[in-house]
Amino acid sequence: MGRRTVKVGLHEKRTGVVCLSTQSAFSGDKRWEEKHPVVAKALWALAQAHSQQDPTFQTTVSFTRLTAAEALKQLRAQGFAEEELPSASTMAEVLNRNGYRLRPVVKAKPQKNPGNRRHLHQSPRQKLGTRKHGGKTRSDNRVI
Predict the structure, then answer these.
(1) Is residue 22 one of the residues assigned to a domain?
(2) Structural domain total, the chain
(3) CA angle 44, 46, 49 (to 5 degrees)
(4) What is the edge-to-edge ordering of all strands in the sheet holding 62-64?
(5) Alpha-carbon distance 89 to 128, whole Å?
C-alpha cells in the first residue's frame, strides 16, 4: 500500500465520501433494476402484494409466496416485452437482493397463555392432589 492509497483512505474517512477510480466507476454491467426501472417498479408492486412480514418480527425480510416463474408470468400478462424480462434465475436474484425471500409465508403462531398452563408444570403427584381423590390413592397400597 502506497502513500497515495493511505492519503485517499484517510480523506474518505474524514469526509465520508468514497472515492471511486475510473475503472471501478465505469466498468461492469448494470443491474437489471437499473436497466429496466419501469419493469422493476411493476415487479416491486407485484412482490409487495404477495408478501408478508416475518411473523416473529426478528428480521426486516419479507416472505413471499410469489416464485420467480410466477412473477415473470404476471409481468408478461401486464404487457411487458420478453426482451425486458430477465431469466427465472436472475429474477430470483433480483427479488432476493431487494429483500423478498422466495419461501412460503409462515403463518403466525398464536401466543401461549401461561396462566392456563399451570397444571402442565406440576408433577403427577401434585396433579392427583388437585383432583377428586384429594391426593390419596383409591386402594390400600400396603405390602403384606
Answers:
(1) no
(2) 1
(3) 105
(4) 51-53, 62-64, 100-102
(5) 61
